[in-house]
Structures are given as C-alpha cells and as structure tokens.
Amino acid sequence: MQHHQARKRFGQNFLHDEGVIHQIVRAIDPQPTDKLIEIGPGMSALTQPLTQAVDQLTVIEIDRDLVAFLERKYRPEQLQIISADVLTVDFSQFGSGLRIVGNLPYNISSPLLFHLMQYADQVLDQHFMLQKEVIDRMVAQPGDAAYGRLSVMLQSRYRMVKLFDVGPEAFDPAPKVTSAVVRMRPLKADRLQAKDEAVFAQVVAKAFSQRRKMLRRVLADWAPQINWEAVGIDPTARAEQVSLAQYIALSDALTPLLAAP
C-alpha cells in the first residue's frame, strides 16, 4: 500500500515532510520504556521513528484499510494496534505514566481534547499536531481574541506550550490551514481547582455562550446569587476578560445553587 486515498470523513491529512517528522520526534524525546500511545498513525510517518525509539508502541486507528496496512508493516511485538474510534476508547485500560502523541484529525480535535481530560491523572504528557487556530485558542490568555471556553477548560488541567507551526505543504493532501504542535503536561494535584468540576464546566460554557454580552446579562439567571466583588469580577466584564482563577471563584460561589443534589 504505497498510497492511501485520504478520507474526508476521517479528516485525514498525511504528514510526509521528513524535517517536520524529526522535529516532532525530537520534541517528544521518546525513551525505550515509555508507555507511548499514538492517535491516528495514518501511513505511519510518525509511527516508524517512534517504533525505533520505544520497546512497544500502541496506536489507535479508525480506518480499517490503514489498520490492515499497519498489521502488514509491523510485528505485533513492535506495535499494538487498536482498531477503534478514539472518542470511544477508555484510556484507563492502559494504566498510568502514559505519553500520548498524534497528528489529530481537525474534525474531532476539540471533542478529543475534552475526552482525554478525564484521564489526565494517568498522563505524563501529550504532544499533538492540530490546526494552528485551535492551538492558539488552547494557549490564549484573558483579553486575547482567541481566549474562550477551550482555553479556560484546558488550562484548568494542563500547562500548555505551543512549540512550532507546520505549513500545509508538509501534508498530503495539503490542508487549507496552517498546523502547529503543542505540548500538554497535566497540572499536579495541588493545582487551583473548582470544588465541583461539573458546575465549573457549566459556568464556563454559559459565560462564553454569548461572549459579546456583559457577564451580568449572560448569567442573568444566576446573577442574584453572585457577589461580584467577592469573586473579583466586574459584572460589566465580558467572558474573554475573566481569568481561570476568577472562573473557579465564580463557579465555587455558584456551587450551592447548581451542584447536583
């Protein structure tokens, strides 16, 4: 199988630029005993150098033709292949100390990042190539145009660093957008965190649901319960002006009202 027709429904764009591949592998810095999991190995551009660096690599691939290709190319002791939609995979089965990597399909990037959040306690780090626009949102700070729900939710759980951009010409077929690579390291147990994660997620989603409006209007249903001064937020502020710490304070203040009984 020298060439595989990229499938739009799987968001496939295959990396082929050797320089970019080496740059990503250097950033990951795989060690022989690492518990490395690659999401979406595709034509194995990253898989090949990773199998040479670690004792065993696990890959998750949805495309059955690519699964068959990988089964022909690698011995089972080199590569454990899981044929599945990654959004349905329970990562708790792999134990702890996981290092997760991948050139992620653009069409599932946000749902996948949220899916992986629930396993963050088992993860050492994640290195992903994504659409540059998504990574800009992930690392954005309050006041930035890109700052939004994704920024707040992921920054509550990870320290994230954008590493470098990757141009469309590095892929086949070439996407219409620039990509980038991000490093995500889960924050420790002593991180600042909300009393109730479900309430925190609900409050952040509601705040950004009408991001051009003042928070006191967007959160009008809950506003009578909020002591704005105590949580350190100006009620005339908009969602993108509020920091992670302020969102945590706000959700903690609303937890008695919103938490499940």
Automatic annotation (TrEMBL):
The keyword Cytoplasm applies. The keyword Membrane does not apply. InterPro entries: KsgA/Erm, rRNA_Ade_diMease-like_C, rRNA_Ade_Mease_Trfase_CS, rRNA_Ade_methylase_Trfase_N, rRNA_adenine_dimethylase, SAM-dependent_MTases_sf. Pfam families: RrnaAD. Gene3D superfamilies: Ribosomal RNA adenine dimethylase-like, domain 2, Vaccinia Virus protein VP39. It catalyses: adenosine(1518)/adenosine(1519) in 16S rRNA + 4 S-adenosyl-L-methionine = N(6)-dimethyladenosine(1518)/N(6)-dimethyladenosine(1519) in 16S rRNA + 4 S-adenosyl-L-homocysteine + 4 H(+). Belongs to the class I-like SAM-binding methyltransferase superfamily. rRNA adenine N(6)-methyltransferase family. RsmA subfamily. This is Ribosomal RNA small subunit methyltransferase A.
